[in-house]
Specification:
Layout lengths: L10 E4 L7 H7 L5 E5 L3 H4 L2 H11 L4 E4 L8 H14 L3 E6 L1 H14 L7 H4 L10 E5 L11 E6 L2 E6 L7 E4 L9 H19 L7 H23 L4 H13 L14 H13 L3 H16 L4 H12 L8 H18 L16 H10 L13 H10 L2
Parallel strand pairs: 1-8, 2-3, 2-4, 4-5, 5-8
Antiparallel strand pairs: 6-7
Helix pairs in contact: 1-3, 4-5, 7-8, 7-9, 7-11, 8-9, 8-12, 10-11, 10-14, 11-13, 11-15, 12-13, 14-15
Bound molecules: 5,6-dihydroxy-NADP and zinc ion (ZN).
Length: 388
Amino acid sequence: MLDFTFTAPTRFVFGKASEQQAGTLCRAAGARKVLVVTGGGSARRSGLLDRVTGSLDGAGLPWLVLEGIRANPTDGPVYEGIRLARAEGADFLLAVGGGSVIDTAKAIALGAVRDGDFWDCYSGAAACTGALPVGVVLTIPASGSEGCGSSVITKGGLKRSATADALTPKFSILNPELTNTLPAYQTACGCVDMLSHCCERYFTKTPDADLTGRLGEAIMACIVKYAPIALAEPENYEARANLMWCGTLAHNNLTASGRQPDFACHRMEHELSALYDVAHGAGLAVVTPAWMKYVYQEDPLLFAHWGHVLFGLEIDCRDPARTARQAIARLEGFCRSLGMPARFADIGARAEDIPLLAKQCQRNNGAYCGFFRPLAEEDLVKIYEMML
Ligand code: NZQ
Ligand code: ZN
């Protein structure tokens, strides 16, 4: 087990009607004027936005709203939000939405207190040294952004992330009922994303981080159990509630404590969603099985055990690689059963772009991408080709 530091400072307020506490939570976090950031309309249509701003009114907090943040968020609304926050004197960002909204709010929070361009912290030119505080009302379990210090933004076709303690939300309101209105496709994308967040940390060469591995297994097993239930019964509270908490714990680094995570699949997927504007979880459904087929020989027993825990496979002790291949096939079947795409063409990706995708991915991650099996550019090309 490796040495590690684990910080989880976010206050999570979980349960029905918890968004009514938005005002008091903002006030308790020191807010004096709140910039509410939200997406393309779902929060307004459902009445959530009115409930949240009503709660801010109730707490005596002035507020303004930046609406229209789209999935795979870009730099434009970030610059607009920074201008607004400065012009209006907002000192607190409240994200009402999913990963795209939360990540935009974090980028605004970072940019509002920075002399230089916010993008420098995403391009790697500078470190994030401070930010306005951020709070969250989560509407889709997926990105885990509500419980971590990362933010992912696209600028000029490059999808890049910034990570800093200052970007970790002060509080996150998690009301599972808010996710009842999710389209099935988005529910499924979210489930694949959180499953991938666990896999990225589960497939590791670090030995002996046994507790960490078992925590990841528990989260993954819950996702596999509850994702089909949420799709069949969108208002099933237990399914929505379990998935919501899975999404947070899958990405707050609990399941990486003491071990080296990989994240090659995420890096490969970010190139896809940057180029084709595909939903992140859908891209991961295409990338992850291909990556697994390319790397499972590094530790067939780990993949076989994973298949046993998630899908009840009996491990072939004489030939664990056989069970590993079965496990990968079961993952593909699981993603298909959720209505997720499986091949390059399903997400509008093109074979002729593979050299560019691999080059971008490799260029932005040094000589190698990932750790479970460090991947050079030629490996990335082969993995992308396996998605055709
Ligand atoms: O914009 P609205 O109208 O709200 O619609 C959204 C959007 O179209 C809709 N939606 C959200 N909640 C809803 C709802 N529709 C009905 N009812 C609700 N309750 O869902 C669509 C997708 O929303 P989005 O915020 O894009 O989803 P997600 O949470 O999956 O976020 C994806 C983004 O997060 C990044 C991804 O790359 C992508 O850009 N990620 C961020 C991470 C982080 N900050 O640590 C890690 C992740 O690995 C990921 O990369
Ligand atoms: Zn993800």
